[in-house]
Each structure stands twice: as C-alpha cells, then as structure tokens.
Amino acid sequence: MTHGMPHDQVHDGAPREHIFDVGMLTRVEGEGSLTLRVRDGAVVQAQLGIFEAPRYFERLVVGRTPDEVIDIVARICGICPVAYQMSAVHAFEALFKVQVDPQVRALRRLFYCGEWIESHALHIYLLHAPDFLGYPSAIELARDHRAVVERALAMKRTGNALVARLGARPIHPLTVRVGGWSRIPTRKELQALRPALDEALATAQATVDFVTTLTAPEFKREPRLVSLRHPDEYPMNEGRIVSTDGLDIAIDSWRDAFAEDQVAWSNALQARTHAGEVYLLGPSSRVTLNAARLHPLAAEALARTGLAEQIRVNPYWSIAARAVELVHATAEAIDIIDGYTAPSRAYAPWQPRAGATGWATEAPRGLLFHHYEIDERGLVARAQIVPPTSQNQAAIEADLTAFAPSVLALPHAEATLRLEQLIRSYDPCISCATHFLDLRIEPADR
Amino acid sequence: MTKEPPAAVWLLACGNSDRRDDGAALLATRGLSASQCGQLDIDDLLGAPAGVPIVICDAAAGVAPGLVVTKTFDELLANPRGPSPHSSHALPIDQVIGVARALSGEPIDGVFVGIGGADFGFGCGLSPAVEAALPQFRAAIEGLV
User: Fold this and answer.
1) Which of A44, A178, A342, A423 suits B83 as a labelling partner, its CA being 20 to 30 A distant?
2) Which pLDDT does position A444 carry in this prediction?
C-alpha cells in the first residue's frame, strides 16, 4: 500500500516537477521512507530515508568477551540473527586460530539453511508476491490464494524449527559459541526434522514454478553484484569476496575494497567502493556469481526458470533468485542431516589473543561484514558491523533514479506504488541497517 | 480429576524485555496466564483455541508515552495507520490479523491493548512515563481477561 503525499508541481514557464513521497514504506523490515524528485523527466533527487533510530550495537559490544558479543549481536535482527552470529564467530575463530570439527562446520551451514528458508519464504509469499499479483497486501492474497499463503507459513515453520533445534529458540538463538556450540543435537533430533524438510523441498520446487508464472516490470541495468564465492560450495560462511566486475579479495578484507559513509537523509550508513561506486548484494548476486555451485536440484530449478539473465539485470526478478535459494537451502539441509554424525565434542578449546579480525558471511539479504579489535584482556576494543541493507542503500537509490522515468506517464499514485514495489524487491532490513554508532550533526549553513 | 474450565480469552503478551519499553506488556502480564510472543506472528493467532476471543497486548507506536489504548481487531483493520504494536517486523498487525482471519476456519476476533512507549533502545527497564502508567496498562488488560 502506498501512503504517500502525491503532488505534481507545475508553474508558468517553470519545469514540471513530480515528487514521489512515501512517508512510511510498507512490507519492509523496519521504518523507512522514499523521496524522489523528478524534474522534466530527470530524477534530481532520490533518497531512501531510514528514520528508525540508531541502535548503537557497535558500542554495546565494546568491553565484552567474544562469546558475549555473539549473544549480543544476535539481537540486532529478529529475522536474521543467525547471520550476525555467524559473521562474529568466524571472525573470532580466525583470530584465535580455532580449528572446528567438520560436523560443527556442517551444523553451522544447516543453521544458515534454516534462516534462509524462513526469511525467503516470508519475503517471497507475504511481502513480494502481492506486488506481482496486484494485491495491496497479504490479506487479499490470503483470501484469494489460501493454499499459497499456507505453504508459505509451512515453509517458514520448517525454517524456524531448524533454527530452534540448533539454537534453542527460533529468534535470537543461544547456542553458538567460539569453537562450536554450547549444545549439539543428536542424529535422532535432526532426523525428526526430515519429514518437514521433505515437504519443504517439494514446496520450494513448487515455489520456483510459481514465480515463473509471474510477470515482472521491464527494467534492465548493468549492476555491480558482490557476494562470497567458495571453490566447492554455495557460499554461506566461507569463501572470498568477489564481484561481477572482477573483484576477488580475501573474506576478511572488505575494508580494502569498500567503505561506509553517512548521508544526511538516513540513519543508516551507506557503503560504496573506494572509487565511490554502488554495488548490490543478496540472492540475485549470489545466484549470478555462484550458479555453478548451487545444489543440483537448485541448479535444475534455475535452469527451469530460464531467468538467470533476468535475475542479473532486473531487480524485480530477485523473487526468482530467492525461490532458487529456497530449493538450495532445503536440499542442502536434507543432505547435511542425512550425513550427520554427532561430533565427539561440542566445541574446540581456544585461547583469546589480541589483534584485529574481520569476516563476512551471507545473510539472507547479502554479505554481512564484521570487524573487531581485541585487546590484551581478550575483550572487544572496537567493532564495525556492516549489514547488507546499508551496503545496498546506494544501489537502491541508483536503481530508483534509473527506473523512475519509466513510470512518469502513469497516474501519480500508481507510479508511486511501482517505486515502492521496486524497493521491496531488495528485501531491505532497515532495523539491521541502523545499528551504527557515530551520528555526525553538521551545521545547516554548510 | 478436576477439568479446567475453558479459557475466557487467549492472552498474547508481545515484546522484548531487552528493548526498554518494548517489554511493557511482558511486565504488565506477570502472573496472568499469557502466551509470550516476541513478534506477533500469524501462527500466534492461528494457535489460539477456536472461538476464544484474543487479547494482544504490546507497547504501541503512534501513541503518547504512557497512554493506554484499546482497539478492536476490526478497528485496527479499518485504520492500519492508527496505534499499533511497536514490533516493526515485516507484516504490520492489520495484515497479521487479516491473513489469520483469511486462513482460519474459525472466526478470529479480539482486542489490542497498547501502551505508548518513549524508549525502545537496547537495555532493561521502562522509561518513567511507561513505568508510571504500568498499573493502568495492567488494569486495562485485567478488565478484558
């Protein structure tokens, strides 16, 4: 739904100006707004405003032990807490040179599969699909397509059950610790999830078929896509940071290529390359950069859609990338459970040491980078957390700027709605983006 | 063995006690028979006993700090931009209720009781305005259960 304040301004002899103003974006996580100003067919201002309050997590973790940090950063987001825990724990383990058991590693991928399943199912069916089907919200979709919404909820429950089995609860899980887990599941406990996952895999395949029946608005651009890439597997917790324009750097070296900056209209930092270029993270980036590493069932599903190129160039088709990743996550979860034998110990011993460390993992919405400095007492002295929505903000604004002229001929309310729909294509998680510490206030006369 | 009488209402206390005023409903329902849900979800409503009215209590956005508001589900659906739970996760309350109604074979009806919050930052304890109004918030909930 659009709750904007549409107004066109026409003055004698003055250029015609359209202002698209969505005061409160709906069906996105958190609180944000859109202001787009178009003059004589050209966008003169595109601002994705994020007014959800800053949350200061980077300061909250200072003086804390690594295991406390893992618990605290999970609170940044109710939808993707696993991502925050995974980026933090891998950063600490890299610095402390901890070797984790292969089954511990597999359980962490399983943990991430659960989060991808619940997050993608929610977005595809309840947040994004109403836009494609012409419904103002999920309510009308549920009335007309009850079975569609019911399968979304069933998928989400399966993802939640996976996270809860490993993390002791579905939201803000408790069991991740440096070196492994505070508790590991038995094979029998994981096998109990198999029937639901078998059903989820069938639903994920049906989801791929469902999204291919949708019609997306025409929009083509050549984006710079960034994600992790691992030599042998679809990226989640390990690999290198790569891009469609040739970037290939170590997983701890995000700062070598990118930097955050603040803009006046947003409570979230924006990230760009050091050359000032925007880039995009998330399912479309992962699928494009890692298609060869998809689970065979997901690779077959991607081929079935015939949408690989559209996923790369048209942000609306991110819904297809999410559907393909749903297949991947459910299929890999099944494989991990089938191959699981409980490790002999839940976690490897470790000793803290002073130094700096960084790590990135793939949150449902894209690459999530953490950087920590650890002091001589083994406590965090400084932290930087760069969530995917912060990194995507500038790319979203660039896409809005490119897309807006194509909807100018539409009635204002419809054009505004189409712009809001474009924002939903990126599945922004605004609460995540407002975690930062520094708020610079500059004098108005600058 | 004595059989417990069926519940008169299904009480859902929403919020997060680590986020200051977001924990108001959890405090106000202490000692009451309530299901706790961090973020109100469609499944929370579908899980309510059939035919039993639902009371959702939560810190509210769009309301003056400490002000207690009561809205029926129908009123929330009619005015999605009015007072609503603070929880900002993806689906707003009108859509959670609307989807649950569309999926449930049983009527889903009830009341939202909210208290305006002042501080939803990280940490425990309520802001002074919400702390002072907590007895009224609890009284409003008790009046419905």
Assistant:
1) A423
2) 35
Q: What is the pLDDT of residue B133?
A: 96
Question: Hey, are the CB atoms on A29 and B89 less than 8 Å from each other?
Answer: yes
Element (H, E) at A316: none
> pTM of this prediction?
0.84
How far is Cα A250 from Cα A311, in angstroms, rounded to an integer? 26
Instruction: Determine whether domain A57-391 maps to CATH 1.10.645.10.
Output: yes
Residue B136 clears pLDDT 60, i.e. is over it: yes
Q: Kindly report which listed range (A14-28, A119-133, A318-332, B5-19) carries the lowest average pLDDT score.
A: A14-28
Q: Please check whether residue B106 lies inside any domain of the structure.
A: yes
Owner of token pair 């953490």: A370
C-alpha distances in Å from residue A188, one per residue of A37, A154, A198, A267: 58, 22, 16, 46
How far apart, in whole angstroms, are the C-alpha atoms of residue A192 and residue A196? 8
- A62 neighbourhood in chain B, CB within 8 Å: none
Domain count, chain B: 1
Secondary structure of residue A226 in the 3-state scheme: strand
Domain extent at residue B108: 10-142
**Residue A367: per-residue pLDDT:** 96
Q: How many other CB atoms are found less than 10 A from the CB of residue A293?
A: 18
Q: How far apart are CA A46 and CA A139, in angstroms?
A: 30
Residue ranges of domains in chain A: 57-391
Interface test with B, best of A126, A139, A160 (most B CBs within 10 A): A139
A199-247 per-position pLDDT tens digit: 999 999 999 999 999 999 999 999 999 999 999 999 999 999 999 999 9
CATH code at position B71 = 3.40.50.1450
Using pLDDT thresholds of 50, 70 and 90, give the confidence band for residue A442. very low
Alpha-carbon distances, residue A173 vs A2, A42, A162 (angstroms): 35, 47, 11
Whether B5 is in a domain gets the answer no
Interchain contact, A153 vs B94, CB within 8 Å: no
Question: Tell me, what's the ipTM?
Answer: 0.72
